[in-house]
Every structure is written in C-alpha cells, then in structure tokens.
C-alpha cells in the first residue's frame, strides 16, 4: 500500500500525546496474533529532537497518511524495552520494542467473576470479562456460540478472555485501537480474499493488485511433541477429590469416545493410528461454582468440552508454515489465506500446498516505501505452535489457579450412635448432608446388636400414706311415693263460703267418728278428728351426706437396686428379626454383610445420592424396627466419605 508518510506518536495511558512532536522512525514492524497479544518494534535516531518522550510503559502509536490524505493507524504498543546501539557507520540508534496494546488487558483483574448462568453457563462471557477492562476498551460481537461455564478469581482480563475461548474452541483478535473483535470458532473465519502464489507473470503489475501475495520463502514446522490420543481431565480439587466427567450430561461429539467410569476422553482416529498416548491434564479453573446438581453437571460438561477441544488441536500431528511474502493488503489473524506453493528438488516434491489455511499471526511493516504484509504463520489447525516456554508458563498458571480458586477437598465424617428398641419402639439415626457436599462417594453404616442394658438391677417396695381430705356431697332421690298414717288424728279444714253467724253447717264423718261443722265466716278453720288409717304422698327430694377428712394407707413395697442389668440373649433380637430402612424406603436388611465379631456393615450410598452423586436430600434417617416381642440395643457408626467445596454464600 502506497503512503505519503508515517510517524510515531508517544502517548500516555489516557491517550494524551507527549513531547514536542512525533518521532521520525526508520520503520515499524507489528505482529498481530490469534487470541493473544502481539508485539511491535521500531527504530529511531538517538538524535531525534523528540526522543525525550520515549520512556518505558508509555504507548507508541504508528500513524500514516494514505494517498488520498486519510490519516490512519497501523498499530500501537506498550514500550517495554529501549536499546541504544551504534551501527557500522557510527550512527546512534534507539531500538524500541514491546507488546502491542493488548498488554493493557493484563493490567486489570476480573476479580471474583462467576460465569455460571444458573448452572447452564453464559453466552456473553466476553462481554462480561471486557467489562473489567481499562477505560477506553470495547469489544465487538461479544457473544459465544457455545456457552462458557467458568469461574475466575483474580485472573487478568487478558487471561480470562483467552481461557474462555480456549475451552470452547473460539477466538478473538485485536482490532483498531483499543478494540477486541470476537471471532467465534475457526469454522467461521472470514476469507482474506488474498491468494498467495509462488510466481506471477509480472512482478511490477502485481504491486498494484491487492488480492495477490507473492511468496518469497516458506519454512515448515512439524509439531508432534504434544500429540495426545486420550485425555484424563482433572478439574478443580486435589487428589481423588476432583471434578471429573462422571456427572456430564453432554455426549462426546462424533469421532470421540467418552468414558465416564474411566474418566477419559479419546480421539478415535488418533488412537487407531498412533496407539494409546494419554495424559492427565489439569483444568483447575473448571469446577462447580455452587453446590447444586446443575452446577456439578455444568462443570463436568465444561471439562468434557475442554478435553475435546484439546484433542482436536493436539490429537494429530500439525504442520505450521512460516511464509515470507509481499502483499499490499494488511492480512489479519483469524482469517484464511489461499496458498498455492510447490517446491521440488531433483525431482522430489518437498512442499505441495494448495488450499485454504488459517492465518495464526501476521507481520506488517511500514517504511518509506509503504505498508506491506511481510510474513504470516499459517496452518490447517487454529492454534499457534507451542514452545517449551509457553508450556511451562501454562503449568505455572495452573499452579496459580490452584492457589487462588476454590478447590474441592476430600471429607470423611464419622457419626457414633446408640439407641434401644423393642417391638413397640424402633431405633432411629438422623443425620444431615448439607449443601457443602459436592458429592458423596461412599456411606457405610456399621452396627452391632447388643442385649438391652439398664442401670437398675431390681426394684422392691416401701409403704406410703397419702391424705385425701374430706368434704360434702349431695345425693337426690329418683322421685316421691306414698306413706301410711294410722290412729286418730286431726285435719284442719278452711271454710270457703258461709253466712255470718250461721249455725252449724254440717257434719264430717270419717271412719265412724262424727264432728259437727260450723263456722261463723268464710276463711275460718275448724278441725275434724279422724280415727281411720290412710296414705300421705311424699314429693321428690334430696339428702346431703357429709364425708369427713380421712387418709388411705398404701404399701407397694418398692426398693431399687442400682447396677447393670443386661437382658438375656434369648430375649434379645437378632439380625433376622430386624427391618432396616433409609428415609422410609424399602427394607435394606438383605444387603447387610457380616464383618465378624458381631459387627455388620450396610452400604447406603445408593439411597443417599442422585444421578450426579450429590445428596438426594439433606435430612436423612436410618430406622431399625421389629415385630418380634424382644429387645435390643443398636450400636452403630456411620462413615460418610465425600467431596466438599468452600462456597461463598454472600
């Protein structure tokens, strides 16, 4: 690309230009990489009048003017190194280099960022991560095709962005200025529209053609050192208390085998061709973000996804080509390049490339002649070759994650218990499995059946007297009756009506006894004698009976003899007499195993866990009951071996 001129501005982190003016650089090289920071370098005269603006950690920006007068930016980076040198002519130079501006993303931490999405993961992980980037940064198309389930605790924005993409097979690159472009999976890489060829008919004419790149040199690199056919993934945790793929609900994609009991993922074609090459790989940033079934399943699914992606990139030998070329087009990593190249020596074909290749990095150069893309690294796979230093850095990163992230840990809880029972009252052991348990690996109930014991050996009597007190009580008859009255006696009679001062008005006769009846006025009473026997009626009535204070004397003869009483073996229950249940379920006594010495063992794990080995419920109970009229004392010990995780419940 032809340009009028270019220069280098020195700015602070806020974008303010520093110094009296720009630096006049001899040239500028910038390498952009896929899903990673690139680097830059330029050379300027040590006698440049604006050299005082150069300082470490300041930002160098290369700008240029196109032929039409448009001012544009080629790239920018953070100054890490300034080297003074003298060439063979005695000229003094400043060689400046550093990472591109993406380095700023390592200056900010994402803190404690959980991308759980209610146990399903999220599809806006890049957006959430970039929200922690320094001021002035933005992201385009920050949605992923595959959900990200991950948790970060102190990682930088750059690290979190790269890890999120790596585990799901998606990518990003730096755009113009402080912009991140999310690209998605390699299958969606856009074509650059450029064809790289070995020969052209007219070199001069090709200078003005944007869709042609001339290949000046090519180097092939074969990468098989990290080839794997099988991965044993290990997520959050230590030792045996780790996240595995056992709880995964997703299946392996076509061409891969998922073995949950063996906790491995296999790439079928690679193992068929190269045999079994396995390695246990740590993904310590993958773990349940909460102790729920959905989170445990999501963590296992994320571990499976990361394993498949690793096998896709490292399951077959990969060839990488470093191509020196010349093109006016600015090529971008994360796009594709059509390459046609054939090389023969003495009739032997060494290189025969004809196809679309992923651009993994691209180096651009600007100088007095203009802007060119002078080199690319290409491959059919979507990863850069891994150096020994990068491998060691990755292992160190895992160690840092292990120290910073919540990790799973093994836990063994033992509960001792004793209870008495008979046919009317069963024995009951209650215990709690809280949400701190990520999984329950094994729960064993060990018990023995002992004769009933008491601290009272015998009971005898002693007398006692109690005072009851007195009082009155009323009783009532059911009704009246008749009673006989005999002998001579008198009856009073009242005159109802008579004439005043009248003479005798009649006679009263009863049983031969006659009395004259006379009265002087109404209402007078006279008496008549009666000598015969007759009845008198008695109406209903009550009688009151008074009970005086008194006492009763009771002599039960009760005396207690303290000591240890133990029931006889004949009156003690046996194993065959027992019904053992967990949480009211079916009888489990058929699964009891004898340990010797009167001890028995019962594995109750299956009844305590669900399909992802988490506690099926928190409140649990083991009961012993019987229908036999005997007694027993149950002595038991419940041992629960599980995996727990410290979870922040704020």
Walkthrough of the structure:
The strands form 14 sheets. The chain has a 6-stranded mixed beta barrel. A 5-stranded antiparallel beta sheet has the order 25-44-27-42-41. The chain has a 4-stranded mixed beta sheet with strand order 18-19-15-20. Among the domains are: 3-101, Roll (Pnp Oxidase, Chain A), CATH 2.30.110; 190-223 and 318-381, Elongation Factor Tu (Ef-tu), domain 3; 230-314, no CATH class; 408-453 and 567-645, Jelly Rolls; 486-530, no CATH class. The protein contains 7 helices and 44 strands. It has 650 residues and is mostly beta strands. Residues 399-404 and 497-514 have low confidence and may be disordered. The chain is elongated, with a radius of gyration of 52 Å.
């Amino acid at each position: 690309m032809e340009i009028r001129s270019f220069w280098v501005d020195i700015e602070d982190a806020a974008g303010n230009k520093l110094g009296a003016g720009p630096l006049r650089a001899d040239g500028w090289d910038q390498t952009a990489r896929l899903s990673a920071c690139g680097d830059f370098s330029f050379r300027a005269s040590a006698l440049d009048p604006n050299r005082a603006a150069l300082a470490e950690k300041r930002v160098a920006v290369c700008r240029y003017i196109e032929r039409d007068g448009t001012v544009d930016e080629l790239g920018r980076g953070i100054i890490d190194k300034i080297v003074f040198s003298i060439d063979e002519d005695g000229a003094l130079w400043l060689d400046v280099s550093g990472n591109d501006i993406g380095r700023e993303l390592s200056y900010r931490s994402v803190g404690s960022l959980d991308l759980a999405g209610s146990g399903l993961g999220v599809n806006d992980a890049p957006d959430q991560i970039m929200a922690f980037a320094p001021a002035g940064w933005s992201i385009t198309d920050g949605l992923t095709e595959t959900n990200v389930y991950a948790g970060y605790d102190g990682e930088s924005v750059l690290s979190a962005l790269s890890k999120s993409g790596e585990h799901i097979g998606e990518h990003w690159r730096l755009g113009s200025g402080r912009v991140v472009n999310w690209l998605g999976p390699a299958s969606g890489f856009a074509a650059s529209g450029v064809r790289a060829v070995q020969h052209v008919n007219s070199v001069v004419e090709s200078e003005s053609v944007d869709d042609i790149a001339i290949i000046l040199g090519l180097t092939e690199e074969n990468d098989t050192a990290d080839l794997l056919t099988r991965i044993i993934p290990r997520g959050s945790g230590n030792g045996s208390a780790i996240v595995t793929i056992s709880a995964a609900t997703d299946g392996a994609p076509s061409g891969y085998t998922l073995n949950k009991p063996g906790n491995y993922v296999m790439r079928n074609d690679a193992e068929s061709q190269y045999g079994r090459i396995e390695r246990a790989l740590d993904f310590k940033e993958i773990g349940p973000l909460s102790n729920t079934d959905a989170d445990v399943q999501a963590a296992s699914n994320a571990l499976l996804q990361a394993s498949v992606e690793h096998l896709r990139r490292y399951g077959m030998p990969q060839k990488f080509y470093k191509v020196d070329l010349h093109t006016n087009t600015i090529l971008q990593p994360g796009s594709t390049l059509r390459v046609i190249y054939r090389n023969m020596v003495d009739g032997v074909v060494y290189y025969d490339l004809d196809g679309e290749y992923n651009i993994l990095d691209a180096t651009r150069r600007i100088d007095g002649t203009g802007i060119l893309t002078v080199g690319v690294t290409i491959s059919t796979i979507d990863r850069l070759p891994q150096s020994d230093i990068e491998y060691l850095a990755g292992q160190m990163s895992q160690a840092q994650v292990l120290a910073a992230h919540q990790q799973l840990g093994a836990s063994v809880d033992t509960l001792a218990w004793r209870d008495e029972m008979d046919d009317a009252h069963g024995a009951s052991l209650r215990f709690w499995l809280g949400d701190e348990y990520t999984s329950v690996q094994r729960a064993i109930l060990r018990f023995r059946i002992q004769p009933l014991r008491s601290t009272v050996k015998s009971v005898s009597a002693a007398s006692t007297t109690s005072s009851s007190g007195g009082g009155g009580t009323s009783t009532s008859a059911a009704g009246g009756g008749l009673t006989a009255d005999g002998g001579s006696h008198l009856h009073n009679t009242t005159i109802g009506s008579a004439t005043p001062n009248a003479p005798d008005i009649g006679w009263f006769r009863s049983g031969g006894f006659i009395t004259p009846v006379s009265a002087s006025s109404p209402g007078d009473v006279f008496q008549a004698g009666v000598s015969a026997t007759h009845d008198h009626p008695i109406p209903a009535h009550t009688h009151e009976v008074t009970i005086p204070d008194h006492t009763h004397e009771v002599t039960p003869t009760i005396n207690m003899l303290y000591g240890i009483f133990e029931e006889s073996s004949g009156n003690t229950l046996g194993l065959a007499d027992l019904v053992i249940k967990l949480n009211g379920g079916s009888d489990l006594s058929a699964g009891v195993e004898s340990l010797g010495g009167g001890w028995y063992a019962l594995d109750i794990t299956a009844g305590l866990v669900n399909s992802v080995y988490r506690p099926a419920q928190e409140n649990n109970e083991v009961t012993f009951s019987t229908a036999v009229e005997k007694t027993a004392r149950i002595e038991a010990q419940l041992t629960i071996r599980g995996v727990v995780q410290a979870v922040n419940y704020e």
